[in-house]
Amino acid sequence: MKVAENLIHIKQQIISACHKVNRTPDEVKLIAVTKYVSIDRANEALEAGIINLGENRDEGLLKKWEVLGDKPIWHFIGTLQTRKVKNIIDKVEYIHSLDRISLAEEINKRAVKKVKCLVQVNVSQEDSKHGLASQDVLNFIKDLRAYENISIEGLMTMAPLTDDEEQLRTCFRKLKELRDQIKNCNFDYAPCTELSMGMSNDFEIAIEEGATMIRIGTALVGVAGEEE
Ligand SMILES: *Cc1c(COP(=O)(O)O)cnc(C)c1O
After folding, report:
1. pTM for this structure?
2. Which end of the chain is more exposed for a tag (fewer CB within 10 A), N or C?
3. Which Pfam families match (predicted)?
4. DSSP character string of 58-96
5. CATH code: domain of residue 190
């Protein structure tokens, strides 16, 4: 399928999910996750009108950045090793995976302008997932006050791999509660308005629960070898 065709379908799903809960589709930023696909396919997404691209590894981001440059707004969505920060810092607008102070320190040190970060939370407490435990997030964000080049734009999570709708909803709801709690603290360096949650299999539920950024790979650009 062409990206443009997938996009029509996904936009309809975004609209109907928003409609269900009285939100407007403008509140939901669509990030096309291009980690599985070629540079050509990523470019096709841009030509279809997508603005935000997400990559989860520095190598993948760099390869695509060499060709696409600053045409898209780049989101780094994967686990970020501290020593890789310098490779991506001047290319990305958002880092969705801030999960430790040592990483914040390095981002702050290497920043060429204010870096928009989201704190990754392991809401579902799965050992396999990165991110802070929910109960540690507020203190972690308080500790980020010292880093003047970092702005905490919101929270990010990956839901458990399940078809159980209630389990997914609970996860997204918990992230939103936590986001609201931090937002209400009114820290000037942490507006914390964004909720990055929802992927190919669960983005409609995520939108119903308040997502402001959805990260979609498979359903939008496909996976390698199945792009057409
Ligand atoms: C791969 C990935 C996605 C997209 O996953 P799909 O199921 O292909 O939509 C979203 N977020 C993160 C952090 C990812 O690594």
Report:
1. 0.96
2. C
3. Ala_racemase_N
4. HHHHHHHHHHHTTSSEEEE-S---GGGHHHHTTT-SEEE
5. 3.20.20.10
